[in-house]
Amino acid sequence: MSSIQVNVETARELGLLPEEFEKIKQILGRVPNYTELSIYSVMWSEHASYKNSISWLKTLPRKGEAILAEAGTENAGLVDVGDGLACAFKIESHNHPCAVEPYQGAATGVGGINRDIFTMGARPVAQLNSLRFGDLKLDRTKWLVKGVVKGIGNYGNAFGIPVLAGEVFFDDSYNTNPLVNAMSVGLVEKGNVISAISKGKGNPVYIVGSSTGKDGIHGATFASANITEDSADDIPSIQVGDPFMEKLLLEATQELIPTGAVVGMQDMGAAGIICSTSEMSEKGAHGMRVDLDKVPLRQKNMEPFEILLSESQERMLVVVHKGRERDVEAIFEKWDINYAIIGEVTEGDNLEFFYHGELVALVPASTLVLGGGAPVYQREYREPAYYQEYKKFDMNSIAEPQDLREVAVHLIKHPNIASKRWVYEQYDTMVGTANMGTNFPSDAGIINLKGTDRALAVSVDCNPRYVKADPEVGTMIAVAEASRNIVCSGGKPLAITNCLNFGNPYNPEVYWQFVGAIKGMGRACEKFGTPVTGGNVSFYNQSTIGGKDEAVFPTPTIGMLGIVDNKNHQTTLAFKDKGHMIFLIGKTYNDIASSEYLYSYHKVKASPAPFFDLEEEYRMQQALATLIQLNLVQSAHDVSDGGLFITLLESAMPRNLGFDITTDAEIRSDAFLFGESQGRVVVTVSPSRETQFIDFMVENEIPFTTLGHVTKSEVRVDDVSFGFISDLKKVYDNALEELITGSNMCK
Amino acid sequence: MKFGVVVFPGSNCDKDMIYVLRNIMEQEVVELWHKDSDLQGVDVVVLPGGFSYGDYLRSGALARFSPIMEKVIEFAHNGGFVFGVCNGFQILCEAGLLPGALLHNNSQKFICKNVHIVPDSKITPLTAYLPREMAFKIPIAHGEGRYYADKDTLAEMRMNGQIMFRYSDEDGNISEQVNPNGAVENIAGISNRGMNVFGMMPHPERAADDELGNTDGRLMFESMLKFICERIKVA
User: Residue A9 contacts by C-beta under 8 Å, 6 or more apart in sequence?
Assistant: First the structure.
């Protein structure tokens, strides 16, 4: 392999810029060989190095009282949740693999994010996911949806961690390039966290789990003709997941912790062995000597660079205290897991890789990693013309529809609004017997912390239409909505993780969206007191629309963690009883901008983000939190996609109740019912608490509106019947399935 | 009473079952590791849900050959109590301790949701002491839960009161519309003729904790405890 001539052209083929090739030569003091060049090409890739995003990511608030591991220091964020427990959580994208092979792409995405959590010593307790697909009328979209959902389900169900919450969103901008963001949440006793570190000269280095094959080596980068004379067409670019192996690794890891024999441990995800060896070594300020021929392989004729870069799934790198080998090996043997010692920790900074006794690569660990030698770029950005265009939207140009009932049905049936039952019923949502939302649905997912007074609250949110219209405001809204969901459920927001899905960063207009999103996220996270604990950046998400290459909607998905300090305050979104009063907290504006109503009913794509005021939102949420503490509300559900009418409907359906409300004469009825101005929550109040509720709102000067009351089963707006809840529910429940399968299975 | 919960490497409902038996039903519980062949003197063996050995071949197909299952089969043949839930039910059928088989759901999809079931027999351990005239809300979570047995077997089971539960609506009405997986005659769970081996696809252990807002499953555990106590007393 080292016989391949390396020059700037080779570097370019591996995706490195000429100046990056120069930098590598400077670092090494010589021309790298092919294996070394391959190492730099993956470690300095966007995916591993964050070279085009890190300077902006560093502007985000990352500190906080409860933060135990700051962003970037461990595989996932770590937050103190009380009672001696820490919560590890992170969201990650698997967009590109899913565009090619949705089933395996999604399955391995779930596998990867869970390994990040359990290699820290935490046991995963909940998963969430955020999915974006193109137009559901396209066969390809249907194929992607079915494949992704089955992949997430089959992997997660077998692994045995419940899916607690998620989002599914459809828009043409995702036609070619779906987004699959998976989040995992785990718990660990504070003293038992395992770090992704390697240190201590002479300590043995283990590779544990599946054997290594040629899967996942980037076919595009390693164009075959330049690599080997014999064919490299056996290089698949998609990894294959094995949830059973993952389960064994989880259980073995849990047993490793109390032995105290482990120095550090890391999952092998992107960039495989080279990534985990370099990151762990750099962190521990040590070097490592690795014999690549000791790595258990599943294929013959693997070149050293292939062994180093392979992304075969369900593998971990474990560094063990010398002399404690038998303790850890006994655990691997108990769980029938393959393991091999592939090297040892050395002094210094160098990673030395040997193959058949020959040194095939020698690279300083620190030069490979983010924060070390990896390049950092400031990208150019420019405001696109559409931004000002969108702002010119005038609501008066839209005639108010005669029949608002027809609009309501349009929205109820819309895949972005309709029940996602077809999706989530394929996920095990109850394994672990801690999902408190099954029988008490809340805006956020709620995980019971058994044996304590507390519960965790989790939410993933982003309305990418708002972000497209205004990246800064749209991303503030994403954070605000996640926080609102947690507050509505009776929780207190603690921290976030993010998954930043954007187009090509070398396009200044795309990068402008990215910069705006980071600014908005930073402002909102400061306000809500939710530091950013980490996450993932996914650039190059492009779709071809009408022969033109366009970026997907900028989609900075926010995964938020919160805590419910007292389980008795868990608040559900469901109306409880007929006769309860319905109030809207927060002010409604004459605004239909960027609403699903404007976008899909009127087919107007150019409008600004909906009304949003960070201060008003924050005050509203604080007031709601107090109302819940005082037991003044029976239910709470935020106004988001589809507007107030959809919120009311979603609250009414769980118990088959109806509602009777009046609109506001000062606001257009369509804006009142279907507008998506932010900072609003629908609550119900029992008649006995009504006075207290109103007194509280008046005293605290929080705007609110009396909407009406809960009825037995009919839905009425301004004395016009919108039908019975059971009929509306049928439409809501079955619409998505009909769109995906073209039939109604549920008769 | 002493319970033994078998732990296969891919079990994932074992901890849920142990929590309910130990913390909610307040029984003594030991874990029985799949490689062991000692039942540790338990009164009841429980096979929990999950994906025993990954189940890439067929749910429960490999588990029956494990060392612990050899002992469980022997235990059952000698009249010992064995309860299987979900994957545990599949294993009991694969091992021939219960009649019939569990096939892929007719939707060909994994399905997880609350369903309702009604007892069909008053003489099985899980149903003997259940409140009468009500349907029970119990979650399902399976990809291969479509119970199947041939006509003669079904007739015999019916005659012997071996059909424990059928899928129903919330008022207890049985119909094809409320059959979540296409199971023959809406069957959700059965017992052997000796009433010592019994299994069901729905998960009663997921409906036993007050904090989760549904305790219909706890009633089944209570019935089982009472039934087995009576039997042991008689013996």
Answer: none
Residues of B near A (Cβ–Cβ under 8 Å) read: 9-10, 12-13, 15-16, 19-20, 23, 49-51, 53-56, 107, 109-114, 139, 141, 143, 177, 203, 205-206, 208-209, 211-214
Token pair, residue A444, equals 């956020």
**pLDDT over 50 at A563, yes or no:** yes
Window 420-439 of A: residues touching B by CB (8 A cutoff) are 425-436, 438-439
Q: Rounded to an integer, what distance in angstroms lies between the CA atom of residue A514 and that of residue A500?
A: 8
Kindly state whether residue A407 falls inside one of the protein's structural domains.
no
Cβ A438–B114 below 8 Å, yes or no? Answer: yes
Q: Pick B51's closest partner by Cβ from A158, A251, A747.
A: A158
Predicted confidence at residue A226, as pLDDT, reads 29
A321 & A421 share domain? no
State the pLDDT confidence band at A545, using cuts at 50, 70 and 90: low
Q: Closest CB to A431: pick one of B12, B109, B208.
A: B12
The per-residue pLDDT for B234 is 81
Examine the pLDDT at A707 and tell me if it is beyond 70.
yes
The whole domain housing A671 covers: 412-427+573-747
pLDDT of the residue at A578: 96
- Of A107, A98, A424, nearest to A246 (Cα)? A107
Give the closest of B16, B54, B212 to A244, CB-based.
Answer: B54
Tell me the residue length of chain A.
Answer: 747
Residues A346 and A422 in one domain: no
The per-residue pLDDT for range A124-158, each reduced to its tens digit, is: 999 999 999 999 999 999 999 999 999 999 999 99
Among B105, B110, B169, B218, which would you mutate to test the A interface (most chain A Cβ atoms within 10 Å of its Cβ)? Answer: B110
Same domain assignment for residues A220 and A282 = yes
* Mean pLDDT, range A9-34, rounded to an integer: 93
On whether residue A52 sits in a domain, the answer given is: yes
* One domain for residues A419 and A287: no
User: Which residues neighbour A688 within 8 Å (Cβ) at sequence distance 6 or greater?
Assistant: none
pLDDT of residue A743: 55
Task: Name A536's bridge partners.
Answer: A499
Domain ranges of chain B: 2-234
Interface probe with B: pick from A127, A251, A428, A743, most Cβ of B within 10 Å:
A428
pLDDT > 90 fraction of chain A, expressed in percent and rounded: 85
Q: Are residues A418 and A323 in the same domain?
A: no
Residue A287 predicted with pLDDT over 70: yes
- Find chain B residues with C-beta within 8 A of A427's C-beta: 110, 112
Write out pLDDT tens, residues B110-145. Answer: 999 999 999 999 999 999 999 988 999 999 999 999
d(C-alpha A48, C-alpha A624), whole Å: 41
Query: What is d(CA A120, CA A349) in angstroms, rounded to the nearest whole number?
Result: 24
Q: How confident is the model at residue B200 (pLDDT cuts 50, 70, 90)?
A: very high
Kind of pairing, strands B111-119 and B163-168? Answer: antiparallel
**Residues A4, A23: Cα–Cα separation, whole Å:** 20
* A208 and A348 part of one domain: yes
Assigned CATH class of B2-234: alpha beta
Mean pLDDT of all residues belonging to chain A: 92
A47 catalytic? Reply is yes
Is residue A517 situated within a structural domain? no
pLDDT > 70? residue A232: no
Q: One-letter amino acid identity for A742?
A: G
Give the model's pLDDT for residue A650. Answer: 98
> Do A652 and A581 fall within a single domain?
yes
Note whether A337 and A423 are same-domain residues.
no
| Dihedral angle sign, alpha carbons of residues A205, A208, A214, A217 | negative
CATH of the domain at A331: 3.90.650.10
Q: What is the SS3 assignment for A408?
A: helix
Domain membership flag for residue A531: no
CB contact under 8 A, B114 and A450: no
Domain count along chain A: 2
Beta bridge partners of A189: A85
